[in-house]
Amino acid sequence: MKLHYAILLLGLGLMIGATPGRGYAQAPAEPEVMEPEAAGPEEMDLEGLEPTPAELEAPEPEAAEPGLSAIGAYNQGVERYNSGDYDAALESFDLAIEKDPSLANAYLYRGLIYSEQGDYDRALIDLNQALDLDPSNANALFARGSIYYRQGESSQAQADFNTALELNPDSVEAYLYRGLIDSEQGRYDLAIEDFSTAIELTPDNPTAYVLRGFALEQENNYTAAVADFSKAIELNGDLPRAYMGRGVSYYHLGLFDAALSDLNEAVNRDPELARAYLNRGHVYFRQGRPGRALQDLDRALELNPELTEAYMSRGTVRASQGDLGGAQQDFAQVLQLNPDSAMAYKQKGDALLQAGDATAAIADYTEALFLDPAYAEAFKARGDARLSTGDVFGAIDDYSQALAAQPSYLEAYSARGSAYLQVNQPQDAYQDLTQAIVSASNSADPRLFYNRGVVRARLGDDAGARRDFEQAAQLFLQQGEAAGYRQTLNQMSQL
Description:
Elements: E1 3-7, E2 40-44, H1 70-82, H2 86-99, H3 104-116, H4 120-133, H5 138-150, H6 154-167, H7 172-184, H8 188-201, H9 206-218, H10 222-235, H11 240-252, H12 256-269, H13 274-286, H14 290-303, H15 308-320, H16 324-337, H17 342-354, H18 358-371, H19 376-388, H20 392-405, H21 410-422, H22 426-439, H23 446-458, H24 462-478, H25 482-493
């Protein structure tokens, strides 16, 4: 049987935009690498999850009858099933059921064969019949639950796994499936409990370690995830997704060289694993190698043309390299595949704003906010776009909305403070810029001090203005920004 599991991905985002200054300094847009999201869909083949024939109880042999008896046909079917001759096994189980319709395990085996052949409707009919005859058949409950899982019927699947575990608390496979359902529904603590129980029951099961590693990544416990992926690799060195999962955890831990090594290993072991290229592309981008990143993202899309995360990431990298048309095309492709992606609208708006089309950017930011009314970064970006069109009060409103959604959003305080300065509200500007400076006590942004110096000068606080300008000048000089340094000295000369 095959399971589908959400494997953790690296995400990548970029805040792009520029706002013209009007007698004050505005920070240029900085590429902002978005920390990896929790997960994205990926197939995971988990072998050995079928109830094996050894787990099924065969009826007691009965006296021989002329010809093949029901029990004889059933036992023949079991032998054929064990040898992998499913077509012949079906004939035997058909005969056993014809001779004795009360043989619950004959329906169970036949249901397993139909499931293996992908005929889930007929499989469910047989498994339901097996359970009608034997309601406490844990194997039939597990088998039916696994089919419900494949069909996306998570609630029915979980109910079957729960009952199966009540009847057989040692069913490792049921713990794994139930943990998968909990993971997919965001109940990672419960998933980790089930995967841990499976590990206690079978300490040498690499699948359980891999799945727990994914769940631990969802909980941001990357050190423990690395340990689980490493254990899985120790047990079975040919697990490309275990290398990929460990590489993602290393990325989160800031160990980019180790992340790259594991992702290289994942690609070498499975050259068709699209998400390994996607994740490796993110590492390359973080290492300042955008050309390599684009190559990997192109390869990921060759292997899986519907991999939305790859379009999103490629659009981000293209935008960072000035290919704004290509970036817009990639974000548009994301929206074609997923029309409800607020992030894609926001990123597309960023590219449009960078290309100078503020009106179109505002439209995309508005769509993003319609989909996610608490998207603080989209409010901030729309504020930047409005400011670039001269709509200062609209910008202030958007910055205020961004702060309502995310009260610790320092960039929004800074932007709103600068906007207040434009409309001659120096007291409000002073409060916002001070909030940004105080909240980011280790800030090395000279523009914050420069802008507050301008505000203090307008408020008549020449001494405070001079202190801020001196701090700004020192930071501009340290960062090699000659234009900012000269502009600051010019302001100081006017005090």
